[in-house]
């Protein structure tokens, strides 16, 4: 069964450093998303991406964040200068025209 | 602001009995609702969904009920199995052009053998 994959599973970084989180969505899906879940809190929407551009973003997704689909398979989330409060699980999701399918997540720890 | 609320952080149920997980929402623009299950160290897994034109959707042991007038939905699992122990998230989407999926905080279900 096709699935969304994410790498790495755990990323530790120093505050102020740039990180890139990678996702491979399900191959025939057209809509891509990033969500995050801070420990003990709910899953929060960050950004949606369709047709090679951002469709919608939340207020969390500020200028420090960017997304890219550099080739036909990868979908990346970049955080330019990480802050302590960026520590969270980051989930990628994709969909065709039905429900979103989520990846296993990347745990980002900012020290 | 909590547009999607799951007021019970946890629920314990005996194996074989019914599990009922509840969810309330405040945004009347929501018209598509989903339940996701999440195990530790994994991403949310889609379980079942319901469109606002329906009041019930069933898939095997899982049934979702929607009461639009009360802005309430519930997930019934019957019979509950120990493997159902996980965190269950209710999520809602507005079809009016929004790509956002708004999640509740989740309910941790423990099914006791």
Task: Briefly characterize the structure.
The complex is a heterodimer of chains A (111) and B (113). By secondary structure, chain A is mainly beta.
Task: Give the arrangement of secondary structure elements.
The complex is a heterodimer of chains A (111) and B (113).
Chain A (H helix, E strand, L loop, with lengths): L4 E3 L2 E4 L5 E6 L6 E7 L5 E8 L2 E5 L7 E4 L6 E5 L8 E8 L5 E2 L3 E5 L1
Parallel strand pairs in A: 2-11
Antiparallel strand pairs in A: 1-3, 3-8, 4-5, 4-9, 5-6, 7-8, 9-10, 9-11
Chain B lengths: L3 E2 L4 E5 L4 E7 L4 E9 L6 E7 L4 E4 L2 E6 L4 E6 L8 E9 L6 E3 L3 E6 L1
Parallel strand pairs in B: 2-11
Antiparallel strand pairs in B: 1-3, 3-8, 4-5, 4-9, 6-7, 7-8, 9-10, 9-11
Written account of the structure:
- The complex is a heterodimer of chains A (111) and B (113).
- Chain A is mainly beta and 111 residues long.
- Chain A has strands at residues 5-7, 10-13, 19-24, 31-37, 43-50, 53-57, 65-68, 75-79, 88-95, 101-102, 106-110.
- The N and C termini of chain A lie far apart (37 Å).
- The mean pLDDT of chain A is 94.
- Chain B is mainly beta and 113 residues long.
- Chain B contains no helices and eleven strands.
- In chain B, strands 2, 4, 5, 9, 10 and 11 form a six-stranded mixed β-sheet that branches.
- In chain B, strand 7 (62-67) and strand 8 (72-77) form a beta hairpin.
- Chain A binds chain B through residues 4, 6, 31, 33, 35, 41-45, 48, 50, 55-56, 58, 91, 93, 98-105, and chain B through 34, 36, 41-46, 49, 89, 91, 98-106.
Low-confidence stretches of chain B: none
Number of helices of chain A: 0
Q: What quaternary form is this?
A: heterodimer
Say how many strands of chain B there are: 11
Q: What value does the average pLDDT of chain A take? A: 94
**Share of β-strand residues of chain A:** over 45%
Structural class of chain A, by secondary structure, is mainly beta
User: How many beta strands in the DSSP annotation of chain A?
Assistant: 11
Radius of gyration of chain A: 13 Å
Shape by Cα distribution of chain A = globular
**How many H/I helical runs of chain B?**
0
CA-based gyration radius of chain B = 13 Å
Structural class of chain B: mainly beta
Q: For the record, give the distance between the C-alpha atoms at the N and C termini of chain B, rounded to a whole number.
A: 37 Å
- Low-confidence stretches of chain A are none
Order of helices and strands of chain B: EEEEEEEEEEE
Helix content of chain A: under 10%
